[in-house]
Amino acid sequence: MRTAPLSSTLAFVPAPPDLAPAMLGVVVQQAGPGHAVAVPAHALALCTVVLSTGAGPGGSAFVTGSATQGRRVEAPAGLSLSVLWRASVLPRLSGEPASTFTDQVFDAQDLFEPLPLAQWQACAADGPAGPGVLAGPVFDWARRVLASMAAPRPAAARFAQALAAWRPQLGQGLPDGWGERQWQRACRDELGVHPGLLRRLARLHASVRAQADHPARWAEHAADAGFSDQAHLAREYRELAGLTPSRGQGVDALRLSAQALAPRFFGA
């Protein structure tokens, strides 16, 4: 299975095709004592299940719902597997709209049962292994979860198709065939956020990718990325990613979300 390494401690394993409609993949990260697990800035449109193998027998697991800003969540030291589900999985599991979980962190056992944490912990304890090896059992578990949960509503499937074809970073307004209020309601129910926030996030990730590929002075880059000026770019970084543009250049979670996750929502 192909992986996309970002540093010596973090790698992204994309979901296989049969799981792609429901999840993006798994982030494998080694967290030291006192470290926090970085939830990718793109968690705004994700249900992130973080499984820590370093919390004693059986490990531990928690879920972050849709987030309105990139953040870091404290977790025990050890190997962490962040399972990046699409936020639309939350309504299927709970019967509640995704907006119910916006900016919330809660026990994974409340939604996902059973969680074979001991199995994953044992797999990690067997010695050094590639991220794909560690992600394999997680994908098998994800298939069992999907087989047992409610099927997606037809409206949810239509929304997912529209989101995949939407290109807000290129100035596109609403997806074809959607009215403004209809689109707002669908975003709230399926992602837990407003369409305006998705547009801003798409521009942020386009900015991160462009800056990584073609470093430039920030004022020039702000204009190229569609910001009104350099100050506008800096404000968006602080509000959406929780840091300044210069600091953001070295943050793996932000680069991960721009390089590997955002294209699955907003195109390359």
Instruction: Encode the helix/strand succession as letters.
Output: EEEEEEEEHEHHHHHHHHH
User: Span from first to last CA?
Assistant: 21 Å
The proportion of residues forming helix, as a percent range, comes to 40-55%
What topology, given as strand order, has the largest sheet? Answer: 1-2-3-8-5-6-9
Major β-sheet annotation: 7 strands, antiparallel
C-alpha-based Rg, rounded: 18 Å
Number of helices: 10
Query: Oligomeric status of the shown chains?
Result: single chain
Which percent range describes the beta-strand content? 15-25%
Overall number of structural domains? 2
The helix/strand class is: alpha+beta
**Coarse morphology:** globular
The number of strands is 9
Q: Please state the average pLDDT score.
A: 77
Low-confidence stretches: 1-8
Task: Tell me what the structure shows.
This protein folds into two domains: 4-148, no CATH class; 154-266, Homeodomain-like (Arc Repressor Mutant, subunit A, Orthogonal Bundle). It is an alpha+beta fold. Strand 2 (10-14) and strand 3 (23-31) form a beta hairpin. The chain has helices at 89-94, 117-125, 131-148, 154-165, 180-190, 195-213, 218-225, 230-241, 245-248, 252-266; strands at residues 4-7, 10-14, 23-31, 36-39, 46-52, 60-64, 71-74, 78-86, 105-107. It contains ten helices and nine strands. Strands 1-2-3-8-5-6-9 form a seven-stranded antiparallel β-sheet, sandwiched between helices. A two-stranded antiparallel sheet has the order 4-7. Helix content is 43%, strand content 19%. The protein is globular, with a radius of gyration of 18 Å.
